[in-house]
Amino acid sequence: MVRQQMLIRPGDAVLDDAKKFIDEFYASIEKFGSAEHLNRWSEIKTQIEESDGYIMKTEELKYGATVAWRNAPRCPGRIQWKKLQVFDSRHVGTAQGMFEAMCTHLQYATNGGILRSAITVFPPRQKGRCDFRVWNSTMIGYACYKQPDGTLLGDPFNLELTQAAQKLGWAGKGTRQDILPLIVQAGDGEAHFFDIPEDLVLQVPLRHPKYEKFTDLGYKWFALPGVSCLKLDCGGLEFSAIPFSGWYSDSEIGSRDLGDKHRFNLAPVMAGIMGLNTETNESNWRDLAVSELVVAVAHSFREAKITIVDHQTACETFIEHFKSEHEERGGCPTDWVWVNPPGSFTTPVYHQEVLFYWIKPLYDYQDQPWKTYNFGKHFRGTLEKREIDYLKRFRHMARAALFAQRMFMKAYANRTKAMILYATETGKSLGFAKQLAHVFSKAFKPEVMCMKDYDVAKMEFQDLILVVASTFGSGDPPDNGEKFYKSLKKRFVEQGNTPNIASDKPARLAARIQAQEGERNMRGPLVKLPSQRFEDPAQIVKSSDWLINVRFSCFALGSTVYKDYCAFGKALDALLGSLGAERIHRLECGDEMSGQEKTFKKWANDTFQAACEAFHIKLPTKAVVTIGTESVQEPVQSNMKLVSADASEGPHFTEYFSKSLGREVLPLKVTYNEVIAGSREAGPCTVQIRLSWQDLCLNNPVSFEPGDHLGILSENADEMVSKVIQKLNPIPSLEQTHRLMIQKEMLTIAGPRKEWVCYENLPPATVFDWFKKFLDITTPPTQSLLYDLATYATDPKEKEGLDMLSQDVGRYEQWKHSKWPTVLSFLEEFSLLSIPAEALIIKLPLMKPRFYSISSCLLSSPTCVDLTVGAVKFITEDGSSRNGLCSMYLNQATIGTTVNAFFRSEPRFHLPENPTVPIIMVGPGTGIAPFRSFWMHRAELMKVFSKGARKQLLCLGHCAPDIHKFGQHLGAAIFYGGYRTQELDLYREEKWKYHNMGAIELAATAYSREVVIEREFVQHKMMIDANARRIYELLDSHGGHIYVCGDFYMANDVKSVVVSIFQEYGNINADEAASAVENLINSGRYHEDIFGITVGARKTHLEYKRKARLMKDNAV
Ligand SMILES: Cc1cc2nc3c(=O)[nH]c(=O)nc-3n(C[C@H](O)[C@H](O)[C@H](O)COP(=O)(O)OP(=O)(O)OC[C@H]3O[C@@H](n4cnc5c(N)ncnc54)[C@H](O)[C@@H]3O)c2cc1C
Ligand SMILES: Cc1cc2nc3c(=O)[nH]c(=O)nc-3n(C[C@H](O)[C@H](O)[C@H](O)COP(=O)(O)O)c2cc1C
User: From the alpha carbon of 870, which atom of ligand 1 is closest?
Assistant: First the structure.
């Protein structure tokens, strides 16, 4: 291959290479031919046509740099090619910037002796500017001085470079092993030298385990081999400065660097120490002495615990790599002369036939820059040489003084990206993700993204991934985490795991991976998974290690009330680890029932420290993050203010919600709202509420299936809002539209600067609207809110009380569960607090949407949706009454009220595709809600089937089963319901109507509080012999599906009953029955739609109060 130096490639040549490269890149992420691929290519083509070049994306550059290593015919250590940290330093414009980037590289790669391979890529060759170059052939190297007597002192390999450095004004100490300065040229072409700070150069004193005299010679060698003279030829572009480092093989130092005649030439010295006869080759003295030099090197590095590989192992692993490359790519370009170590005849590589060729992307050679550098050109005017030397030395010293500060600024300019991925159902994880971004913004470039929007294909190019995810349903991912989870599981299967493991629910998947990887790896303070392989350079990087360059940590939100506690977060943690990513901090689980926020803050703090360590980010004292015990991110009072805004700036709420939730929120109108059980005035009551979109002009037609949910954005009651506002000091105007501003520290190259910016969580609105529509004032204040509000205490007693509650988890939990305080009752309890509006507004969490199962069917009601809502009302232990926010909002919504809502698909609770498959529905209380839509849908199907008119359904635009495929008869559909009393039986007449039509079969109803009837729950009805036998047969022999909807405790009890039924009627033991039910779950035939813990809340609260009391007692 002919290589041109310093010539800009013509556009055509760039185009050819770029096309090939970009095709390969998209093939590698399995997106070849995708719209993204085609768009990217047309973008590149346009750029090349305009400028003969183009700007590579970071992920493309990372791909190119790793593949170039894979293609390097002369590198025997390529087995590790996937594990390469790529520092993208294309933004660097000056020699100083290059030096700083290389210091970061040295620090990262040296890693205290546990070396990590890394490459730093500076800007590519470009028309109209000089090449960026590093003059040193290796980043760290020893100088060589020609002595007056003509002998050389130092490493003769670097004689010319040392002389070039001296010409630039560098003066070494003149010892045998002086570290050379880094000499670099940026786009202006001027060469600059920089001494490398001593603490960045790890050197190993060389000792021989047997020959002390060798030790006495006082030689040393540097730990990090970093090649810095090559260029990267990739995608048509030429990156002329790409310092690259890995680790040493013992023979490279022992035999080449120390042993060779034209290097330190220590073979005769060692032979002398060994007492060998150096007069004659027949004594084989050179081979023997070099062997002992290699022994000394290996011994010294191992003793100092510095990564090194012995040449035998290096050769063995190279052969392994060579073979796997042949299998995977049909070849492996290899330069036999280079990959064979000295004395290689005992290694397997010696006998290996190889082919030597170059393929791109490629690390290529280039001319030594000092040969063509005009040293004279940069001398200033008529200054004497002495003055010039002085000036240079002064400049050099000034640079050193500025170094630490510049490193700090550089850390901001060139920060590592931290991708924060969240999945949330009710918004907490998003809040935590934002707090995490705030913490990481001190040293990283954080980006918060919902898992549903994340492109998993490019995950391998990420440096750092932080996951914050909750668990929902019954141990399932939240809706917006589902796609991400599926993609990771797909990768997991592709790396050779059996698909049936991947079909497991999150809890079981996590447990199985944990068992595979070893319990040890998942725990411990700072654990290193097998994927963290830099400790063992000989280790093959398997193709399965897809995320080999990625570091991660996960925070899982959940509630210990649920059996599968934090299952989704645990599964993600296990999956990422098993896909090769390196866990920088162990998984932490935050329990909603106790101390979730506190656990999160500790995890955020610890993970930040761990990430700084992993990326060798040192913060100057001023920037050190102090995540207080309680306050991660809250701005302080002086950093926020309310400013008046024009009323026209006020938001269109629906649009605002759509934007902030990332879902299409619709302003639905209440057209019907009737009590169907109980009474609004007293006791529990359930309402049927109808919401219509008839009069709306919609962008997309509404579409949902039976089993889907409606998300409701509720509003706080006017009375409560007014009372809260009255407690603020000063009381703000209720009519005035405001914008909430916060002061943010912006980091500019000139240093940190403060700027007022609009608080992004709230649109401009009146204070009343913020409290009514956005802020959560009904959930008990968290400990961290109490901590923050304690600063506004004017009364010492109140301050003491708040400090105690915010710091003592036991007392706090007891306070919370016995009083279930709202923000209003809290302000009434601590009545002397003097809190300004902006402080409370900024510190309160945002209201979360509530979900309701859709209780109607689109086929019968194409312009509206019904909900069945049980109003939550309860009395706290201290006798106060409390209302559920959303259920009461809906309960009291009058006809014509606008309710902001969005549809949420729940495919896990959809009817079977084949309508002839039997179904069993268990839905006591409001758990009946989705089943109403099931039987309405079935009734519509029956009508259509009877007319044989599937076309009719299709023209309605709704999905309908294929009559020809499945026949025209519906399978059995048995419904189990349960209520407190017969009076509270929901949709009684309607159920019988559908029963009589044949759309459902009604099993006997359970009544739990009926005086004349024995107290029973649905589980009891299911256990009746005839029912149990039928359930067993439908599920076991007829491929039936079971659907359970409602309270969590009920769902658990039902599951236990189904297990018992399998045991009894299947004549199997308890374990076999449990695994039969597990199989139903995993095969998608056991469906649960869990409302949460609302109904059983009292039971839960009592349990937590008991725990809190215990905690308190223990503390005493
Ligand atoms: C997927 C899904 C589907 C759902 N479908 C329906 C449905 O179809 N119909 C329906 O009615 N609900 C349904 N729910 C429940 C619904 O979303 C709400 O959780 C419920 O209406 C309560 O919300 P709220 O805003 O009124 O109460 P919140 O303001 O959220 O207050 C409820 C709080 O009060 C506490 N609490 C409740 N009862 C008591 C008590 N007795 N003692 C002490 N504390 C108590 C709870 O712990 C809880 O924290 C569903 C939930 C989910 C997740
Ligand atoms: C309907 C429902 C089901 C839930 N299921 C689980 C579960 O199976 N396991 C668990 O640990 N937590 C479960 N939780 C608790 C949530 O994970 C917890 O509330 C979390 O803090 C919510 O975070 P988010 O707002 O980011 O979604 C459930 C909560 C609800 C409301």
Answer: 11
